[in-house]
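Q: Structure tokens for this one, please.
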Amino acid sequence: MKSDTSKENIVSMQNFVSKARFPALVEVEAYWQALRNGRDIPRRADLDPRGIEGSLEYSFIVERIAPGVARIRLAGRHLNALMGMEVRGMPITAFFSPETRKDVALRIEEMFQSPGIFSCAVSGEKSLGKPPLEGRMLLLPLKSDLGDVSRALGCLVTEGEIGRTPRRLDMLGETLEICDGPALDKAPAKPRAIPAAEPLGEKRSRFEGTFFDRVNRRTEKAAEPEKAPAARDERFTNTKVPFLRLVNTDD
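A: Here is the predicted structure, written as tokens:
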């Protein structure tokens, strides 16, 4: 008689096999876990490239700029090789085929909101000049300087000849491991309040009022009657002594 086995007792070996197959993933996740030290999500500023020196060419950092949109800020040489160009500034979904991008965007948003450790298997599209390509991608959440979970440390490793670029990937399967720990500030910090600009009409009225007040004051001053000159001192007006004398020098 066969015994019933509960699905809860079944342990998937997929992650263990993937880690053994791609050592770079192990190094990056181990470094992230060391920064976390069983507590909160690490900060972007805590990263030191020397901690993942053996995996730098596969590593990258993304920034969440909108729901489901994460742009690459730093990337290793392997990611540039997959696309055949510099990938900084590109959304991470640019590595995936158009049919897969929506699902990838949803999973990445879940990773930021949970937050959690996101991992997925990838396979390259096959066509002329594009041989089989398989690999795995890992995303580990990070906090920004503001305290919100809007950054992520990633690692993308592939096996096989890259061939003709760019190589678009399909997502074959994914896992999201929710991070346990203290309460996390998922929402970005509130922006500093900026005082509203004064309406143009009010500003113009205030300017015109000040200007015309000045003009009116000048006009009123000009219209005032001139004051009579002050009376001269009697010592100069009533004196009988002439101001000039004739001097005779014929003697």
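A few notes: The helical segments are 14-21, 23-36, 77-83, 98-113, 200-223, 234-237. The longest helix spans residues 200-223.
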